[in-house]
Model the fold of this input.
Amino acid sequence: MDNSLTNFNLTGSGGALTEVRVQRELAAVNDEIEETGIVITEPMAKALAEVRAQALKDTGRFEAGAGALTKIIRLFSPTGYISQSDAEETFSELLSMFYYAKSETKDAATDDRLLEAMLDAFENRCFGDLELLRGRELEAMIRRINRGDGVGIDDSDNYSTGFAGSGSDGSDGSDDSDDGSNDVM
Done:
């Protein structure tokens, strides 16, 4: 498959990303999403890189490589709610939402867990509607994470710190019944 990626320079927050590294990352994404009908073209890659740099700047974040961008493209492309004609705008908006949520929650949820929750909301409650995702679902996720209630994919998730088994009250989830026999005086 021709990835439509030739020599171009992408600039991100903190300096220029090497052409070879970005080309390799985006080429790999194109190979992985080929069956969805979405192709990351050179102009789209440049535009997404600019959005990425601005979102990082706006949120005071730094990211080496195109990490979150490639994760978003991989996760959201197969949903059926994104077409080639709206892919650039959709990926741009999702990337901005992701960095916003990471900053608003002070990284309390792992990248993967936050992206899973965003994908779940995008597919199952917003049905591809970005305004609904940003306005209702993302803000609700941020509130749940900041309260220590996890990202809210299901009622049993305890991922507020990114570690499974960590209860929202800081416990390990075990029964801590206290009969007083082990108290330190």
Observations:
- The chain has two domains: 1-104, 106-166.
- The mean pLDDT is 75.
- The chain has six helices and two strands.
- Residues 1-104 form one domain.
